[in-house]
Specification:
Blueprint: E1 14-18, E2 24-27, E3 31-38, E4 41-46, E5 52-54, E6 58-62, E7 65-74, E8 80-88, E9 100-103, E10 107-111, H1 117-125
Antiparallel strand pairs: 1-2, 1-10, 3-4, 4-9, 5-7, 6-7, 7-8, 8-9
Pfam family, one: Yippee-Mis18
Keywords: Metal-binding, Zinc
GO molecular function: metal ion binding
Length: 138
C-alpha cells in the first residue's frame, strides 16, 4: 500500500483538520451546525468532508432517534473522526441525511492556506528556493 493521495481546500476561512495527522477534512463554509453531541462531547454537522472513508452502514439508536450511519475515518491515518448519516427514521431528522458529523475532540481548526500560511511554509521549508513571492505557487 502506498502513500494516500490527499485533497486540499482552497478556502479563505477556517478549515478543520484531523487532530492526529493534520489532514484537511472540511471548511467552516460547509458547517451546518455546532449543536451536536458525539461520544467524545461536542460535535459539528457538515455538508461535505474530504480525505475520509466510510465504514459499513449500521443502524443506531441515538439521542434524536434511530438512524442508519457509517463511521468516518481519516484516509491518511485511519483515525475515526465522526460519522455519516445515511438515513433517519424520523421525518423531522431527515435534514441530517447525507451530512457528516465530526467530533470536536478528534479534529482541529486552523486558518486556511489562503491567509499566507502556505507561503510561509513553502519559503521556510526549502533552502534552495529564493524568497521571491512570484516563484511560490499557493
Amino acid at each position: 500500500m502506498g502513500r494516500p493521495f490527499l485533497d486540499y481546500l482552497d478556502d479563505s476561512g477556517e478549515i478543520y483538520e484531523c487532530r492526529r495527522c493534520s489532514a484537511c477534512l472540511t471548511s467552516i463554509k460547509l458547517l451546518v451546525s455546532k449543536a451536536f453531541r458525539g461520544a467524545t462531547g461536542t460535535a459539528y454537522l457538515f455538508k461535505h468532508v474530504i480525505n475520509v472513508y466510510l465504514d459499513k452502514p449500521d443502524v443506531r439508536d441515538m439521542t434524536t432517534g434511530r438512524h442508519m450511519v457509517r463511521d468516518v475515518y481519516c484516509t491518511n491515518c485511519n483515525e475515526k473522526v465522526g460519522w455519516f448519516y445515511d438515513m433517519a427514521y424520523k421525518k423531522d431528522q431527515e435534514y441530517k441525511e447525507g451530512n457528516y458529523i465530526l467530533e470536536k475532540a478528534l479534529i482541529k481548526e486552523r486558518k486556511s492556506f489562503s491567509d499566507g500560511a502556505a507561503l510561509r511554509l513553502s519559503s521556510s521549508s526549502s533552502s534552495s528556493m529564493d524568497n521571491d513571492k512570484d516563484d511560490i505557487t499557493v
